[in-house]
Records
---
Amino acid sequence: MKAPAIAPCLGVKDTGASVGFYEKLGFTAQPAGDDPNDDIRLLLFGGEFALMVYRDAHLRDWLPVLKDSAPGAFGMFYLAVDDFDAYVAKIRPLVNAVKESDHDGRRLFYFTDPDGYIIGVVQKQEW
């Protein structure tokens, strides 16, 4: 698997709960390293790297500059899917939808994860 140019690593309250949430949405999880005491997980979507999740306490220990940061983010992440309609229909009952929109001819579906991160679903496209 090729690593992306930028790899998001989200601080989460409970790594197991976050992994469980994302697995319900079609992601797969795997350990990010060999240390059994480290709970960082890689999340794949469609077999490709999507993001990492890491317990907030461990992330604060790793980067003390984050010690006062709350989980969640000001901003959003986008998830590009092969079939927008089918994927949104599948996850709609599993998520807290916060907005649906059409913008520049593209349909968008936004939801929050258990830690307040906003994910926007979009149809996969070439740039």
---
Amino acid sequence: MSNIAHTYYPQSGRLVILGAGESGVGAAILGKDKGFDVFVSDMGTISEKYLNMLQEEGIAFESGQHTEDLIVNADLIVKSPGIPEKAPLIKQLRGMGKPIISEIEFAAQYTDAKLFCITGSNGKTTTTLLTYHVLKQGGLNVGLAGNIGNSFALQVAREQHDSYVLEISSFMLDDMYHFRADVAVILNITPDHLDRYDYKMENYVASKFRMVQNQRAEDYFIYCQDDAETVAALDKHPTAAQYLPFTQEGELSIGAFVDADKNLNILVPNREAFTMNIEELSLQGRHNVYNNSAAGLVAKVQELRNQTMKESMGSFVNVEHRLEHVACIGGVNYINDSKATNVNSVWYALESFSTEIVLIMGGVDKGNDYEMLRDLVKSKVKAIICIGKDTGRIHEAFEDDTDVIVNSASMSDAVQIASHLAKKGDTVLLSPACASFDWFKNYEDRGEQFKDAVMHL
């Protein structure tokens, strides 16, 4: 029994994959193994890794173009989440009535593994990795996929897992119709990627709530009761699943909450109650209590032992470039949060520290509204150092809220300035709030340059 209850899509014929990245090549290999005539088409240059994989598998492909005649004859199309609906080719294929689905939707047809699916505007990578860590430590044969790790389709094709933890973005959800999550998690919903949703928040919220479509009475829906957008949308997007909320604003009889003694309590019907002091969690900060609440609820649904949960939630090491501790030099802590590419992520980062902060931020501004950072900047940030070409809006936003705002000429320059402004006990935090591609290849490159500059102080 797969996670798509019936077969809604062709099971043979021509399978066209648009996009030759991790998900696309994985889907191509699964399609080949299932007997499809597979063709992969990518408008860009295919990286060497994926080129080699396609060649080794003997899968037909093209790069640098989409040849219409080789695509419009498809019986089924799997598209990369990065290709927007507005793309002319997608519009044409939709007009022809061609089924266009995501890699996750395609692969779910071919597995009866349990699917633990996590989405949210912020924290989903950390929560996905934490959940995977806890379940693995608990002895489950579990795979990690979606927005992270190896392709879900490739793992379904070539590995056998009893369950998967999937990080799922709104772009993936947009092309998922019959897929069913055994456990669906929505961490939070804040404005992001609105250009893909006609600048309408309700469209973005609806996309996130596709996570709970098709859930049944035996499934679980885990969500944050403190997140206004999520709670407001519950009535509009009902599900048959069992609701498990988590909160830091009071006590619950079912779900996860923090009590007056700072204990995280996890209560799931017909399961042993779990308690752990939040100061024992390896990930600190209010937002990470939310992340642990969600991961803990997934683990408790799976009936993991309390001791196993405590050990794994106390030993987890976070993902690179997300609030990553780089070094302590002269009593100053240097933190790499390069993955914070939106304002909300920076809010979470600032909220994590009780020290004074020298904040390095900037890059390609995606139309950011910095208003939500104002109070935290006023109370915690002693200086802002701008990186990237577009610094004007940061100056405008914060000139009345912090004593020092300066521009830098490079990442190493920014780190040098920060080291002079910070004193013992302070935190130097790279948390850009912006995309990276003006000075850097991507957020990883930005984070690596920061770490390199810190190590050269």
---
Amino acid sequence: MFELDVRSRKPIYEQLQDKIRDLIVFGALQVDEQLPSVRTLSSQLTVNPNTIQKAYRELERQGYIYSVQGKGSFVAPPEHHPQEASREKLRTELLRLMTEAVFLGWTKREIDDLYHDAVKRQERGMPHD
């Protein structure tokens, strides 16, 4: 499914969250598609099951996935994600980055072009990496 960087300073559960979120946002995982079980993903990635569970729990809290008792975790419909708190966190980060870009001399045109590139990537299912 994907690889994690064990040398990264970013915690494994956050890397896992980011990877799954990207797969959902870019359409590689479809609505109501089942995610691998905690046990399966844990053995595939050789990661502690508690780490996988923590990532799944956070993604569920953010509205990207939902769980069905005894069945597993599934991709949530778009109207369930992102929650308002996630949107506000993203807005704050975008504002910080755009302020820095303006400070470094980026023009409105360059920022608009970047936005349009992001829309095209999302439509084509291309991740940001």
---
Amino acid sequence: MLITIARAVGGSTVARVRRPDGVVLDLPAYDRKHRVPHDLAHAVTECELGMADGVFGSIAGGGVFSNMRLVSGRPRHDAADRSKRLLAANKAPLGVAEVVSAAIHHAVEHDDPGDVYDNVRRGWGVFRTEPCPWTAEQLAAVVARLAELTVDFEATGKVVLTWPDALTSRVPAPAVAHKRGRRGRI
């Protein structure tokens, strides 16, 4: 999947997503007051930390958020149902992706990576009981990568990223409906 994050009219940003199935979607952001695009923080954080069930892994799997707009391509006949199942299944991982990305975003936005590990650990603890799976060094590397891409974004007004196929969220199978039929008659 190809992700292009670019400045939009009005000062915010938009992430244009080109999925392998040929569907192209726009994901608008409401981040006018930030130097670091919110969706760039998500994409970098989720990719670098292997979060397949976050925002962009969910989109790669067929998830469509309510604020997204179809630009081109033809969605599957069952796209809405698949998206609904996927987003419901990924509710907690999407929450984790939000708090972890927010901590990384804050570190780069304010040029203060000092507390990123503690902030991520606290956010992780809201959703999970097991220990945070990432080390301070791993999170520092994500901060460095986002800072590097932010410099590129500031210079050119856009950043293009390739989302790895391995980080595509799986779509849960539909619930099996029990067939109701006629019982044998005599």
